[in-house]
Amino acid sequence: MECFQLSLSIAKTSGRKNCEGAAYFNLGCVYDDLGDLQKAFELTQLSVSIAEKTGNKDSKRIANNNLASIFFRFGDVIKAEECAKSSIKLCEEMRDLLPGKDEWKINFRNERDDSYTLLRRIQSQQGRTLEALFTAEAGRAQALMDLMESRYCVRESVRPSSEQQMELIMTISGLVSSPMIFVAEDQKLVSLWLLLKGQQCHFIQKEISVDLKSLIRETYQKIGVNFDVRGKDRSGDEPEDEESVALKTLHDVVIAPFSHLIKSDEIIIVPDRSSFLIPYVALVDQNSRYLSETMRIRLAPSLRSLRLLAECPEDSHSTSGALLVGNPWVETVRIKGSKFKPLPGAEKEVQMIGQILNIQPLTGRNATKIKF
C-alpha cells in the first residue's frame, strides 16, 4: 500500500498526468483486493477522469472495465453495463487503427478479452442470454472476419440493436442445418448455447471445479498426449479407466448438457480460447462410446464466419473435394527462444490421406498462409 501511495505522490509532483492516472488506477486495484469497494471506486473514477483529459484510450478502457466490475458487485447492473460497453467501444476504436497484420490484431484482442467477458457475465446473470451470446460472438475471430469481409466485400454492423441481434442469431441457425454448440469460458464457469434450426436458443451454465484450461491440461496428461506413445497401437481399444474418466468429464461439461436435444448425426462446435484444444472426437459419453462414433464433428471460429460462408455466392468457394494441409514450414517460429519442431510423421500422414482421397496435400513451404 505504501509503495503505491508513494508512487501517486511522485506522479503528482512530477506533473505527468499519465503516470498520475496509472497510480490512481493501481491504488484502486489495491483497495479492491482489500475489499474496500467504495475507495476503489473513487480512485478508479479519478483514473478515468485523467485518461479522458489526456486522451489515453487504453487507460480509459481498462479503468472503465474495472468500474464496470465494481458497479456489478455493488448491484448497479445498469451502470456496470454502461461502463463495460464503453470499455468495449474504446477497444474496438483502438483495434480499427491497427494495420492489417493478423498477429497484431489477434494479440490485441487476446489481451483485452476481459471487457467482452464482463459484459457477457452481466447480461447472462440478468437472463438476457441472447444478448450475452451476441456479446461473446462479437469478440470472436475478429482478425479472420476482417480477412473474410475483405475477401467477400461485405461489412456487418459492429453493435446492432437487440432486435437485430436476435434476428442475426436466428438467421445463422436457419442457414446451417446442423445443431451448433457455442462455448464461452469465464474462469470456473462455462456458458453454453445450443442453436437448433427453427427452435429457440437453449442456454446453460456449468460450474466446474477448476478452470477449463486446467481441466483440459489434466485430461491431456491422463490420456498420454504429452508423452511418447508412438509405439502403442490404440486402434480398436476401449478407453482405459483413468482416460475414460477424464474424457467423460469433458464430455459432461460441453456435450452432455444438450445430448437429449441433439438428434442429428453432425454437430458444429464454436469453441472459446482453451476449449479449441478439447479432443472432441475422443470424448466419451455415459455409454463409453467415443463422440466420433455417433456423429461428425465440425469446429467453427465464430457464428458470423459460418453465416458469411453460407451466404457467399456458390462460385466463391469449392463445394466438393478437400483441402489437406500438413507439416507446414515453421522454421521462423520460436517457442521461448527455441525452434518449433514439427510433429513426427505429420507429412507422412497427410500424404497417406492424400493418396486415399486422390488429392495433393499442401506441405512444407506450400502450406503457408495465402493472402488474398
Q: Any overview of this molecule?
A:
Helix 5 packs antiparallel against helix 7 and helix 7 packs antiparallel against helix 8 (129-138). This protein is α/β, with parallel strands linked by helices. The chain has helices at 2-14, 17-33, 37-54, 57-74, 77-96, 102-111, 114-125, 129-138, 142-152, 162-175, 212-223, 241-254, 291-294, 303-311, 346-357, and strands at 180-186, 189-195, 202-207, 266-270, 296-299, 325-328, 334-335, 338-339, 362-364. It has 15 helices and 9 strands. The protein is globular and about 70 Å long. Residues 227-236 have low confidence and may be disordered. The strands form 3 sheets. A 5-stranded mixed sheet has the order 3-2-1-4-5. A two-stranded parallel sheet has the order 6-9. A two-stranded antiparallel ribbon has the order 7-8.
